[in-house]
Amino acid sequence: MHRFEYLEPTTLDECAQMLAAHQEKARLLAGGTDLIIQMEQRKRKPEVVIYAMRVPELSGIRVNADGSVRIGATTTLREIETSPVIKEKFPVLSYAASTVGSVQIRNLATIGGNVCNASPAGDTLPPLLVLGTQARMQSVRGERVVPLEAVFTGPGQTCLAPDEFLVELIIPAEAVNLSALYYKQCVRQAMDIAVVGVGVAVKRHNGTCEDVRIALGAVAPIPFRAKTAEEVVRGQEVNARLIQQAAERAQAESRPIDDVRGSAAFRREMVLRLVRRGLNQLLRVNG
Ligand SMILES: Cc1cc2nc3c(=O)[nH]c(=O)nc-3n(C[C@H](O)[C@H](O)[C@H](O)COP(=O)(O)OP(=O)(O)OC[C@H]3O[C@@H](n4cnc5c(N)ncnc54)[C@H](O)[C@@H]3O)c2cc1C
């Protein structure tokens, strides 16, 4: 591995100042389960590595006064998987976290790392998208909050400026009213990256689908909300025909590639089947 300067901030301000001083030469290090491997493979060569795990304000899960839940960027996936708050309010996120790698990986890997690594196949990303998550970022210039879907700009790329870092994710209070699920289609049973990831969330009232969110992973350069598919079922008294139509729209919105894990055609077929299955399961429509 190349030589680099190593810094350890202990406050948010220190972290912001270090990033401001070194800009694109610097990279934040959290659990290192992506970054260290990328450095070993010489895909990334930061001259300055800023270790984020000693900043207390970056970690932890808290219910805010307004009922929203904040998850600090350096909260590990194991903490999210086992957190009573997340299990009770957003079991879909707890489940998605549990599908990442192994316990050893999840003890190191953080949710901020999963977001900022911006892999189209990141497992927590479709669930976070369907829950309507917001991302709070900070720099010496101040802070800003953006919808998570605006964070991803390309494979491995985010909207974060070189001097900015992710502080926390905020899941709005109303997301507790959603029923949600995540399907991870992979080649192996364990320790595998998703070939297709599908997150679905619905709010149902008296047979009507009041709200719906569908998010797709590993089938486009970024994880994204399949909004034209959502429009088919939102506000409707749902039946099998509408669900089929929504699944077909989601399929049409996906732009998968062929790679070692699966062909584009296989991925497209799985989007159709998993979106249909998810909507059927959550809306209890047979056929
Ligand atoms: C064996 C193995 C199996 C894996 N299996 C899976 C899997 O099944 N599913 C899956 O989704 N992933 C998987 N991964 C990938 C990885 O574990 C996750 O993406 C993890 O969440 C990354 O978190 P981290 O804390 O290790 O990030 P790091 O490696 O520390 O950082 C990742 C990137 O995010 C940036 N970053 C981190 N925190 C911040 C922040 N607060 N602000 C700004 N930038 C930040 C870093 O600069 C870096 O570019 C696997 C990795 C390994 C090694």
Question: What structural keywords apply?
Answer:
11 helices; alpha+beta; five-stranded antiparallel beta sheet; single chain; binds flavin-adenine dinucleotide; Uridine Diphospho-n-acetylenolpyruvylglucosamine Reductase, domain 3; 287 residues
Separation of the first and last Cα atoms: 55 Å
Small-molecule components bound: flavin-adenine dinucleotide
> Any idea of the CATH class of the largest domain?
Alpha Beta
Largest β sheet strand count, sense and barrel closure:
5 strands, antiparallel
Percent strand equals 25-35%
The average pLDDT is 96
Give the strand line-up of the largest sheet: 4-5-10-6-7
Specify Rg, calculated over alpha carbons: 19 Å
Structural domain count: 2
What overall form do the CA principal axes indicate?
globular
Assign a percent range to the helix content: 25-40%
Tally the helices: what do you get? 11
Predict the CATH topology of the largest domain: Uridine Diphospho-n-acetylenolpyruvylglucosamine Reductase, domain 3
Structural account:
This protein is α+β, with helices and mostly antiparallel strands and 287 residues long. The chain has two domains: 5-174, 2-Layer Sandwich (Uridine Diphospho-n-acetylenolpyruvylglucosamine Reductase, domain 3); 178-283, Enolase-like, domain 1, CATH 3.30.390. It contains eleven helices and 15 strands. It has helices spanning 12-22, 35-40, 77-82, 84-89, 91-98, 103-108, 111-117, 125-130, 227-233, 240-253, 264-283, and strands at residues 5-7, 26-29, 48-51, 61-63, 69-72, 134-139, 142-147, 152-154, 157-158, 165-171, 179-185, 196-205, 208-217, 224-225, 236-237. Helix 9 (227-233) packs antiparallel against helix 10 and helix 10 runs antiparallel to helix 11. The protein is globular, with a radius of gyration of 19 Å. The model has no long low-confidence stretch (mean pLDDT 96). Residues 27-35, 37, 52, 73, 77, 100-101, 105, 108-110, 112-114, 116-117, 122-123, 160, 165-166, 191, 193 line the site of flavin-adenine dinucleotide (FAD).
